[in-house]
Design goal:
Number of domains: 1
Shape: globular
CATH topology: TIM Barrel
Largest sheet: 8 strands, parallel
Order of helices and strands: EHEHEHEHEHEHEHEHH
Strand order of the largest sheet: 1-2-3-4-5-6-7-8
Strand content: 15-25%
Number of helices: 9
Length: 262
């Protein structure tokens, strides 16, 4: 019933109890999970994890935090080769993050463009990370735009105007557990958007929703995000979950039958 389109289940934070986490997510009716890579090593681990579970898929990418210098062609080629796996459904996470003073904007932008071009070449959707860099992110997406460039804005943190511009460029808005936080601005954004443009994620092991805020996040908790979206949109949880799952199936060209709504 529920989906988590961005969960780092292959990361070390789940090494000691990954099987138990998988058991819990199945018990909580999570039927689809996408595990994103952040560099060649984590992308390889993501592909390996997705090969072990029929309901887990992966993406391969280069997170802006992993870009401290000019990215070598070898790195891009390695990621492109990993993307040939039938379990890979997208390129990401990629993007820009200018939050920290020691970031290298020029190198991040170069890597972002390179990975967008890989996605266009392979006709795969992209998973975009953006933090304190909306102007540059949108500028690059506009400049690199072509007929098959599409994807999702991971862990969305912008306002309604930014969300609508992302949608205009062919992107879905992925909503994390921060939606449930008391001072979050995301409820207003969700209210303003069509639910057909929304996805749900945990970004586990981070950003656990209420009532687990401050603890390790895990995919079973994506139901709290979906429940909050349903409440905001005035829909039943089943209807909201069905629409959101259909959104993911369509964007990532996933196998399986879409949920009948209404």
């Amino acid at each position: 019933m529920f989906i988590d389109v961005h969960c780092h289940l292959s990361f070390p934070q789940f090494e000691d109890d990954r099987s138990a986490v998988v058991k819990r997510l199945l018990e909580h009716n999570i039927s689809l999970l996408i595990d994103p890579g952040t560099n060649p090593l984590t992308s390889k681990r993501s592909v390996e994890l997705s090969s072990r579970y029929s309901f887990i898929y992966s993406t391969v990418g280069l997170h802006p935090h992993d870009v401290s210098d000019r990215v070598a062609d070898k790195t891009i080629n390695t990621l492109e080769s990993l993307a040939a796996s039938p379990r890979v459904v997208g390129i990401g996470e990629i993007g820009l993050d200018f939050h920290y003073e020691d970031c290298e904007p020029a190198h991040q932008k170069e890597a972002f463009r390179a990975m967008l071009r890989v996605a266009k070449k392979l006709d795969l959707p992209v998973v975009v990370h953006c933090r304190d860099a909306w102007e540059d992110t949108l500028k690059i997406l506009r400049e690199e735009k072509c007929s098959n460039l599409r994807g999702m804005m991971h862990c969305f943190s912008g306002n309604t105007e930014i969300a609508r511009e992302c949608i205009r460029l062919g992107f879905k808005i992925s909503v994390p557990g921060t939606l449930t936080y008391k001072k979050s601005s995301l409820p207003a954004v969700v209210q303003d958007l069509e639910i057909q443009d929304i996805l749900t994620e945990t970004d586990a092991p981070w950003l656990a929703p209420v009532p687990f805020r401050g603890k390790r996040n895990e995919p079973a908790y994506v139901r709290f995000v979906t429940e909050k979206i349903a409440e905001i949109k005035g829909l039943s949880v089943e209807t909201a979950a069905g629409i959101i799952k259909n959104n993911a199936i369509e964007l990532f060209s996933l196998p399986g039958k879409k949920t009948a709504i209404g």
